[in-house]
Amino acid sequence: MIAQGGRGAKGMVRQSEPQRPGISIDDNSATIAHIKRLVSDFVEVRNWQDFHNPKDLAAAIAVEAAELQELLLWKSPAEVVAYLSKSEGLDEVRAELADILILCCSLANRLAIDISAALVRKLAENEAKYPVEWASGRADKYTALGATARDRCT
Ligand SMILES: [Mg+2]
């Protein structure tokens, strides 16, 4: 089941993909709703709804994240900088990041999750966990951060 509206019956295949990512789409012109629709159309026209179930999408997100990590695996910090300064390296990272985002959109579609609302809600939770006065310039987990800050105050 795809949770987003406007779909045909399960198993029906559209004659063509109604919208495809084009060169004119970028972060300034596309909405998340548009991107989610592109993903759902891509899945539906291939009749992949059964494959794009929550369990397998969660696993696929982790697999794609590992592919992103693999690009940088065993490289020194200097080698990472050199790799990312080349168009081939950046293209590989761009492709793996896109794989992750596509699957995230598909999971959001499947579970009727509003990505914008979820993101803003989580940012608010993170703001509470990582107050600027405690977290600025520090990479500590919030639990250690709070303890450290409390220790400083006493
Ligand atoms: Mg990939």
Account of the protein in words:
By secondary structure, the chain is an all-alpha fold. It has helices at residues 32-45, 54-72, 77-85, 87-111, 115-129, 132-135, 142-153. The chain has 2 domains: 28-113, MazG-like (Helix Hairpins), CATH 1.10.287; 114-154, no CATH class. It is built from 7 helices and no strands. Magnesium ion binds at residues 64, 67, 96, 99. Magnesium ion is lined by residues 64, 67, 96, 99.
CATH architecture descriptor text of the largest domain = Orthogonal Bundle
| Tally of structural domains | 2
The run of helices and strands is HHHHHHH
Class by alpha and beta content: mainly alpha
**Terminal Cα separation, in Å?**
55 Å
Mean pLDDT: 85
Describe the main β-sheet briefly: none
What name goes with the CATH superfamily of the largest domain? MazG-like
Shape: globular
Unreliable segments of 5+ consecutive residues: 1-18
List the defining traits of the structure above.
single chain; 154 residues; mainly alpha; Helix Hairpins; 64% helix; binds magnesium ion
Write the layout of secondary structure elements.
Layout (H helix, E strand, L loop, with lengths): L31 H14 L8 H19 L4 H9 L1 H25 L3 H15 L2 H4 L6 H12 L1
This protein binds magnesium ion (MG).
Provide a brief overview of the structure.
This protein is mainly alpha-helical and 154 residues long.
